[in-house]
Amino acid sequence: MTNRQGRIIVLTGIPGVGKTTVLDATLEAARASGSDEVVLVNYGTVMFEEAKSKGAVEDRDQMRNLKTEVQREIQRLAAEKIADMAKDKIVIVDTHMLIRTPEGFLPGIPTWVAEALCPNVIILVEAFPEEIAGRRSKDEARNRDVETVEEIKLHQELCRAAAIACAEVTGSTTKIIMNHDGKAEEAAAETVKLFKALKR
Ligand code: ATP
Ligand code: MG
User: Fold this and answer.
1) Is ligand 1 within 6 A of the CB of residue 136?
2) Which of 92, 70, 82 is nearest to 117 (CA)?
3) Can you give the CATH number for the domain in which 140 is found?
4) Count of domains for the chain
5) Residue 21's CB: how many other CB atoms inside 10 A?
6) Structure confidence at residue 84 (pLDDT)
7) What atom of ligand 1 comes closest to residue 141's alpha carbon?
8) What distance in angstroms lies between residue 94's CA and the mean position of ligand 2's atoms?
């Protein structure tokens, strides 16, 4: 579907599963092996820059409570910005398949974002629901929603469905990478292996 030289990897997982942690370890491993072609992009950060410049929010955790039509517009602007970054690089987009809003789950990658980004691979970072609940309760750096273990399980299952729906639109492959407690480096090693497969 795409004729660009670079590759886009969408790396998703529910809040607190450890996406950013795994990505930091991935970048370190990639750089240690001499690769300088990997660029990390946090979709929420790009959206936050857009939302802040419009005066819509002051804090990134306020974004999921904006009216969904405002979130969709900001989402679209961010997709165009990110697609521009993938020239001859591997761009990893740290994002969510679903955003829990007061109006229900909002897709992080609706069709128009999927078509703008056209990812080669969608990675789903997963862990046991109990592990995710434990991480969220210990993470004081963020203002996180409270979900029960059952709600976390459902949220993770819905993200699988959303990933496959996105893959059907773009032809992307989908890969599940487990990030169990204390095993972020193993998850990072799996991600680096994927870069090698993509460069063939
Ligand atoms: P968000 O979607 O909200 O940005 P995230 O998926 O990026 O969340 P992180 O911020 O990377 O999640 O991690 C959430 C918390 O879980 C952090 O406190 C982090 O240190 C911890 N954590 C991540 N991975 C692991 C792991 N493998 N073992 C133990 N703790 C972990
Ligand atoms: Mg994160």
Assistant:
1) no
2) 82
3) 3.40.50.300
4) 1
5) 17
6) 84
7) 18
8) 7
